[in-house]
Write a structure and sequence with these properties.
The protein is mainly alpha-helical. Helix content is about 60%, strand content about 5%. It has a domain at about 5-150: Methane Monooxygenase Hydroxylase, Chain G, domain 1 (Up-down Bundle). It is built from 8 helices and 5 strands, in the order H-H-H-H-E-H-H-E-E-H-E-E-H. Helix 1 crosses helix 3, helix 1 crosses helix 7 and helix 3 (about 25-45) crosses helix 7. The longest helix has about 100 residues, at about 125-230. The protein is rod-shaped. The protein starts with 5 loop residues before the first helix and ends in a 10-residue tail after the last helix. This is PUB domain-containing protein. It holds the Pfam family PUB.
């Protein structure tokens, strides 16, 4: 349970009642200090320690209300006493610990009238009531200020938690957006690759046919070159051709070639008296002689 030190409460009360203590003798000031100290101790630890904080504060506010009414209207008989059987008084004055003691110190005394119990205020104790009222007000004000100060970090922590949650949400949304963009890019790349693969499959047979056509043309050119090389210039014959050469248009036909053999008739060589057979049978043919 949150409590305020007696020193802080005393300082606040002293500032509030500074004017009332001016002009008093030393004995009077000492008595006033003792009275204030007694009221403070009746509050804390007298009321604050044994009761829940919420109930203790509600009891103090009830006592403060009784004092306010008497200070504002001291001659009003309605405010000069309260029934102990009243439900509100029962819950906030009679049942809580320490509150009746504080009321008695303010100047209220128990009495019975027509078999009805009351707490009646003694007008001669007005000065005590004012001192007790000042102590109550200062304590309640300090408690409220303390709660307000304690509420500031709580609000700050709540704001930090909200900000953190917002950051997490934004990061999640950014991650989803990045993933979606990456998926879209991969989908586009797959579509491009598929389109390129289809185009390559369509053009491959054409390129293959073109390559085969080029190879066939090269082979035909090579065959033509070989044919040109094998042809004997000026003869109309080519190597390996045993048949007669075809006559060229516009030119006289070539005489048939003559092949000699050993069975042919001897042909005399002019001016030598010898034949080809004789020449071939000799190791060295004789020199030609003039006729």
């Amino acid at each position: 349970m949150a409590t305020i030190s007696p020193e802080s409460l005393a300082a606040a009360a002293e500032r509030r009642n500074q004017q009332t203590s001016e002009g008093l003798t030393h004995a009077q000031q000492l008595a006033l200090h003792e009275k204030k100290t007694k009221f403070r101790r009746l509050i804390d630890p007298g009321i604050m320690r044994p009761n829940p904080e919420l109930q203790a504060m509600k009891s103090l506010e009830t006592l403060l209300k009784l004092c306010d009414n008497l200070i504002r209207e001291p001659d009003n008989s309605k405010y000069q006493r309260f029934k102990t059987t009243n439900n509100f008084i029962q819950e906030n004055i009679i049942k809580p610990k320490g509150t009746v003691e504080y009321a008695r110190e303010l100047g209220f005394r128990p009495e019975v009238e027509d078999f009805q119990p009351y707490y009646t205020f003694n007008p001669t104790r007005m000065e005590d009531l004012k001192i007790g009222h000042a102590i109550l007000k200062d304590f309640i004000d300090l408690q409220k200020q303390k709660k307000e100060r304690a509420a500031i970090p709580t609000m700050t922590q709540k704001q930090v938690a909200q900000e953190t949650a917002e950051k997490v949400k934004l990061a999640f949304m950014e991650d989803r957006r990045t993933k979606q963009e990456r998926d879209d890019r991969e989908k586009e790349l797959r579509a491009i690759r598929a389109a390129q693969g289809g185009a390559a499959a369509t053009t491959t047979p054409t390129e293959s046919n073109q390559s085969r056509n080029r190879t066939q043309r090269r082979r035909r050119h090579s065959d033509d070159d070989e044919e040109d090389i094998r042809q004997l210039p000026g003869t109309g014959r080519v190597l390996g051709d045993d048949g007669p050469a075809e006559p060229i248009a516009g030119e006289p036909p070539s005489p048939p070639s003559q092949v000699h053999s050993s069975d042919d008739e001897d042909v005399s060589m002019p001016g030598t008296g010898r034949t080809l057979v004789d020449v071939s049978s000799t190791e060295h043919p004789p020199p030609y002689e003039d006729q």
